[in-house]
Design a protein that fits this description.
GO biological process, one term: L-valine transmembrane transport
Mean pLDDT: 83
Largest sheet: none
Pfam family, one: AzlC
Structural class: mainly alpha
Family: Belongs to the AzlC family.
Subcellular location: Cell membrane
Order of helices and strands: HHHHHHHHHHHHH
Number of strands: 0
Radius of gyration: 19 Å
Keywords: Cell membrane, Membrane, Transmembrane, Transmembrane helix, Transport
Length: 236
């Protein structure tokens, strides 16, 4: 569907280019992580075409790393799908917020753009509301998406050329990514750290009598459920 705006073609081109420019820092962050994902996916035994398809269709770094880790641990498909759904549930909130920012855009554009939203593209769009329009968001999301998918392909192609000692150490990026997501939240409030510790404890306990996949799923759901009243509790 063609986007109908009152802007001239040059203004439309400028908005799209602004989105591409805004995506450059995201590209710089995505490429090394995506390359690492491609390498780890190959190490886990996932065919290159499947890892590239995963990046193309899922486009969610944390979920993809988690899925590969769960596959390596022998988790089943249902367990991985549920864990991915829980981890990505925040996208419902981000999607609704993006729809508000782009409320004047046609519905097909909203659906297409919301399917490509990530934490980083959402943050940039939210911080640049004065520039945020469908064309700006399209340039931002498409550029970030291209970096993620191409990085996965590069990582998969280079996996056999990387020395085993280096490729084995790259799996630490999974933990580094989640720590990177957790630390800013903990700095904002100690409650997030407490929720993380509770979830870790639950996962360790469930892992004693359940498969690794179900342990992660249940620990994530219960940890989030326990965390809601903790976060909402006001200081007296």
């Amino acid at each position: 569907m063609e986007l109908k705006t009152h802007e001239n073609p040059q203004a439309k081109k400028t908005a799209f280019q602004q989105g591409i420019s805004a995506a450059v820092p995201i590209m710089a962050g995505y490429l090394p992580i995506a390359i690492t994902f491609g390498v780890i996916a190959q190490q886990t035994g996932i065919p290159l075409i499947h890892s590239v398809l995963m990046s193309s269709l899922v486009f969610a770094g944390a979920s993809q790393f988690m899925a590969v880790n769960m596959l390596g641990a022998g988790a089943g498909g249902l367990e991985i799908i549920l864990a991915t759904f829980v981890l990505n549930s925040r996208h419902f909130v981000m999607g609704l917020s993006l729809m508000n920012i782009l409320r004047k855009a046609p519905t097909p554009w909203k659906i297409a753009l919301s399917s490509g939203i990530t934490d980083e593209t959402f943050a940039v769009t939210s911080l640049q509301k004065e520039k945020a329009n469908p064309l700006f968001a399209a340039g931002l999301i498409l550029t970030s998406y291209a970096a993620w998918v191409s990085g996965t392909l590069i990582g998969g192609l280079l996996s056999n050329m990387i020395p085993p000692s280096i490729s084995a150490s790259m799996s630490i990026s999974l933990y580094a990514m989640f720590i990177g997501l957790l630390v800013p939240a903990v700095r904002e409030s100690w409650k997030w750290g407490l929720i993380a510790l509770i979830s870790m404890g639950l996962n360790t306990w469930f892992d004693m009598f359940l498969s690794s996949g179900w342990a992660i799923v249940l620990a994530t759901i219960m940890g989030g459920g326990i965390g809601v009243p903790i976060v909402r509790r006001k200081k007296k």
